[in-house]
Structures are given as C-alpha cells and as structure tokens.
Write a structure and sequence with these properties.
231 residues; 0% strand; globular; 83% helix; 9 helices; mainly alpha
Length: 231
C-alpha cells in the first residue's frame, strides 16, 4: 500500500499539470492519443539522457555552471526539443500556435514524471519531499516546456528568417531557464527557497502570458466566435 501511495504521489503532479495545460487550449483541443504518445516518449528519453549526462560529467567535471547549463539542462532540453521537432513539428495536428505548448509540455512532463518516480524509489524520500518536487522540479519542467512550445509554435506559423529565430529560441529559452533553476539550487544551498520561490513566480507569470498569447492568435478563434454568435 505504501509503495502504491508513493507511486501515485510521484506520478500525480505530472498528470495534473499536463491536464491543466491541455485544458487551456481554448479553441481546438489536440487528439489525446498523440498527447499521450508524446508524454510516454518524453519518459523514454530519461535513459539516454542519463547516459549522455554521465559521459559529459566525466569529461567536464562538476563545475556548477557547466553542470547546470550543459551537463544537466543542456542535454535534457536538447533531447526534448529534438523529439518534439522530429515527431510533431510537421504533423498535420500541429495547426495552431498553442499546440506547441501542449505537445512540448507533454514531452517535458513525461520526462519529469519518470524522473520523479525514479527519485521516489531510489532515494530515502517522504511525501513532503515529493510535494516540494511537485512544486519545483516537476512544475519547472512544465514551464520549460511552455517556453519551448510557445517559440516552436511561433516558428511553425512564421515565415522567412523568423522561422529560424523562433526555432533557436525554442531551445535557448528553456535551456536558460532550466539552467538558472539548477544553478540557483546548486550555488545557494542554505537560502535557496528565498530565491527559488520568487523565481518560480516569475516563471509562472511568463508561462501564463505565453499561454494567453498563443491562444490569442489561434486561427480557430474567429471560427469559434462565429459559432457562438450563431448559437
């Protein structure tokens, strides 16, 4: 019973956050099978990420900056980006800017959920510690996915040089945010909570603004308004 409770506590935050961003899609909800597929694909990337990170750690050492922005977050966000770009970027269901956020958070939260499960069963943790992880690393992964997906959505519906610009930003923004997250955790160990709480607050504000902006330029917005007027 305890094992089941720990498993549920490790999985629930990722599922809840994915449901939140999925339901934030105001105009054209994405097919659940594709969202679930990307969630599971994100979980499957944990093993290759761990292997690459171990190799880089042996090569670059444990410098806080190198670990935060290259070994840990650089590898994680690049592989998420790679999966997202090659599986969904040219998919026919990616037909509005907000779709990038849905699909990117699915990949990110799949990764974060399996990472959370492994942490719960390989480390001496309590439910309180899992709650802290739900509020910080897991929600952090969701927000890094929002930044990635928002920029990829802009790239998808841009033209000319703007496409490359937003594709680059779709990788650089989550790497920067995620790297800064880990850098704070590593370099301010005694008072990290006083810095991390306002930092997460800023990330959430930026994430919600990205959600609203992506919805506001949906091509289905006017169609839905017309349907509402007719009804």
């Amino acid at each position: 019973m305890l094992l089941f409770s720990m498993l549920a506590a490790a999985i629930a935050p990722g599922i809840a956050l994915l449901a939140y961003f999925y339901w934030k899609d105001r105009y054209d909800a994405e097919p659940l099978p594709i969202v679930i597929k990307l969630f599971l694909t994100g979980a499957l990337t944990v093993l290759p990420v761990m292997i690459v990170q171990r190799a880089l750690l042996l090569w670059l050492g444990e410098s806080p900056f190198a670990f935060s922005f290259i070994v840990s977050e650089g590898v994680e966000e690049f592989i998420k980006w790679f999966v997202l770009f090659h599986i969904i970027y040219n998919h026919t269901e990616f037909d509005e800017p907000y779709d990038g956020i849905v699909y990117a958070t699915a990949v990110s939260l799949g990764f974060a959920t399996l990472e959370n499960v492994l942490y719960a069963f390989t480390e001496p943790v309590t439910f309180g510690m899992l709650l802290v992880r739900a509020l910080l690393p897991v929600s952090g992964h969701a927000l890094f996915g929002v930044f990635m997906g928002y920029s990829m959505g802009r790239a998808k519906f841009s033209s000319g040089k703007q496409i490359k610009l937003h594709l680059v930003l779709s990788l650089l923004l989550p790497v920067a945010a995620h790297g800064l997250f880990d850098f704070i955790m590593k370099t301010v160990p005694s008072r990290w909570l006083w810095i991390m709480v306002p930092f997460m607050f800023i990330l959430w504000l930026r994430g919600i603004r990205s959600v609203n902006r992506a919805n506001s330029v949906s091509p289905f917005r006017l169609i839905k308004r017309e349907e509402e007027v007719k009804s």
